[in-house]
């Protein structure tokens, strides 16, 4: 087996240095090395979207990139977005609208929804559905999630005046 | 309103600040919203090792030998264990229930001992310090197989020429049931039209987003096994783990906390989960097993996979005279333990024709063994099949006599004032609302406008269809499901409530939570019944050490059964609190009420807060009248006894467009009206319905476990097994009728499976409606573009 290699990156605004096997993917690194278990693993082959995190500002599937590829990167997970308050309104909308049942898809769904709202502050329902289509949810049937994202968008627009 | 009136007459549930019927948000979701839940896949224990299973690549093969020498020397490997070795610590099981007469199966081992019977059955386990290292070593376990003949085709499974999977059983027939009610042959003779078609339902599976996960922790010092498992029925698991590992039930604690989706997939206990418990006992340390997605497809229960011939006889005036079915389903090589693999077929045969008055019905269902993954109960259990067959036949009958699909249903559905009544198959209906539900649906969807739009668009070459499906649903099952068949699966639930020293309510319930809202439902009922705010109620569930004994969450039973137990327990506690208040305030219990956590008197005057009452009860009992002992805890259990099941009903509609060039179906809108009796939280009910609908829509259009003739599952990954994603799904409008069950005070029936029951049937009917100008009828799901284009003769 190839020996571990050192990596250094920023995770949720904290500097992290670690020795990792080159084959380790970012999802497993976050979960197993940093105990950031809010990043979930549903398929490990890039389809379900449960492992979505932000790397250098873009959402990516952390099961599809290696930890060593995140060298020097800025990684943000659901724990980071929650602590900074960036998505507090979106989380509250999900809560009020019951846009989560088991909650396993939720961290990644929030990541994807926030990504949409940052680029398109006033999406229609079809655009919301389209943008969330890389994130599988078995519980909700999506309708409530679309409602929650839509109401957050409207509230943000109103606040922005 | 005076407090005296409230306690004497009105149920506490009707009080002005009751939470019953309110769409309050579920408590304690922040944890999940912030990524701070604790799913089993997140759990790590000291000295924990990871199990990976070596699985048979053959659908049927003799295990000639297993060479573990090299694997054992690999980095991080703690042990490699074969089926024969594990069989020394765990006994095999047979998945039968005595009330499913004639059901047979063969002994199944936690890890196959000398024969693998489906592709994916575990043949050895590798334990290592990490999952990755265990996977590395698993590749070096050398298993020599002698392939055996496979049985995959259900149509030929019973032919004399077909090999028998378990020779000792004599044939491949697991179960057969026949029903003959009324005068079927006569009814066909006097029918003006007879429709006779074959329905085909593909195999699909649950695809919970969190795969099955277990951590088993045998603590030799305590002689106790703690099992962390994503499961719907902790007490069932406790019983089975104890039974097969030679332990007392008290030695086993099962914890079911955050679960990433269940839907019936996680109401069973699987061979690899039992193996994980046995491995922990063998190794005397915690063992974790998390299925990967490929394993999920190969080993999570599959469902449906029915081929069913259906016949209906109808008169010109629209009277449906008769239904007849001949159903055949293949369930894998073993009947699943302990709930068996015959329940789905049994549900299909009893539910056919459910909404209708038709007295003549003949049915046969046969369940056969095959060398594919095991099949068992998945959300809806039989309902989607029975509904698709019944409603498919009704639509075809309407077409045959030129009658509108809504009209033929109106003419044949059981009248709303006909209850209580029995079905021809002996089902007992307490109170249903087929007509009111259909009327509401027709209004919600603006049926006539849609028909007009459909006609207009057809002229432009746009083919849209409307599909309607009404259904009945089995909920709140009593002992009739499992208990009478000898399974130790409780049909009753228990709830304990206590007022703690700070004046807050702790509630322990045997119902479990997988996202349905069991915790919210329980807190809403308890808070309303006692007279406190929901924030003052903490609900504890999913722990066999810390909850009363009960069934858990499955078969749409949580609210109807555990909800009633919660109500009754909370009412007793309320009475005990009022008795304590009376003792403190020197009055009679009836003189007081609890409003918003405050004891008030007959004039509505606030007297003392609950935390003052508890201070006195717990810390200054010396100040209470002599002989008075406050009992600030109460427990109640409940199971319905009068009706074996509380039937509910509903009706759904789909509006969709078929692209006749590409064969693609675009879902435009979906409507549901259902009747689950008293609604505790309308938002939670609606979301259960929507989630279930989308599972049914997935089955209708995409989901299919595709096996080749050698028994290989060819699409065991999420790229090739398609699930519904947001963009393909429509908005879903939900409406309600409310016919409470009078058997319980709460009046609630189940709602968890109504969505799944009718969704696929609507889509099939809508596709056939859309394609009616082409004279094409398709009675198979999933309705893939290939299937549609083939039917249209385009490919
Ligand atoms: S776990 Fe990464 S996409 Fe499914
Ligand atoms: S809430 Fe369970 S998968 Fe989305």
CATH class category label of the largest domain in chain A: Alpha Beta
Instruction: Profile the largest sheet of chain B.
Output: 7 strands, mixed
Shape of chain B: globular
Per the CATH scheme, the topology name of the largest domain in chain B is: Aldehyde Oxidoreductase, domain 4
Q: From the helix content, strand content and strand pairing of chain A, which structural class follows?
A: alpha+beta
Instruction: Write out the strand line-up for the largest beta sheet of chain B, numbering strands in chain order.
Output: 3-5-1-12-9-10-11
Give the largest interface pair and sizes: A-B, 58 and 59 residues
- Give the CATH superfamily of the largest domain in chain B: Aldehyde oxidase/xanthine dehydrogenase, molybdopterin binding domain
**What class do helices, strands and sheet pairing of chain B give?**
alpha+beta
Tally of helical runs of chain A: 6
Please render the helix and strand layout as text.
The complex is a heterodimer of chains A (161) and B (795).
Chain A: E1 5-11, E2 14-20, H1 26-33, E3 52-55, E4 58-61, E5 74-76, H2 78-84, H3 88-96, H4 106-119, H5 125-131, H6 143-160
Parallel strand pairs in A: 1-5
Antiparallel strand pairs in A: 1-2, 3-4, 3-5
Helix pairs in contact in A: 3-6
Chain B: H1 3-8, H2 30-33, E1 49-55, E2 61-67, H3 69-72, E3 77-82, H4 83-86, E4 115-116, E5 122-128, H5 131-138, E6 142-147, E7 173-181, H6 184-189, E8 193-205, E9 213-219, E10 224-229, H7 234-244, E11 252-255, H8 271-283, E12 287-290, H9 293-299, E13 302-314, E14 320-330, H10 343-351, E15 360-368, H11 383-401, H12 405-412, E16 421-422, E17 428-429, H13 434-445, H14 447-459, E18 463-475, E19 493-499, E20 505-509, H15 518-530, E21 537-540, H16 558-585, E22 593-595, E23 598-600, E24 606-609, H17 610-619, E25 633-638, E26 646-658, E27 665-675, H18 682-701, E28 732-736, H19 754-770, E29 780-781, H20 785-791
Parallel strand pairs in B: 1-12, 8-29, 10-11, 14-15, 20-21, 27-28
Antiparallel strand pairs in B: 1-5, 2-4, 2-6, 3-5, 7-15, 8-13, 9-10, 9-12, 13-14, 16-17, 18-26, 19-20, 19-25, 22-23, 23-24, 26-27
Helix pairs in contact in B: 10-11, 11-19, 15-16, 18-19
Bound molecules: FE2/S2 (inorganic) cluster (FES) (2 copies).
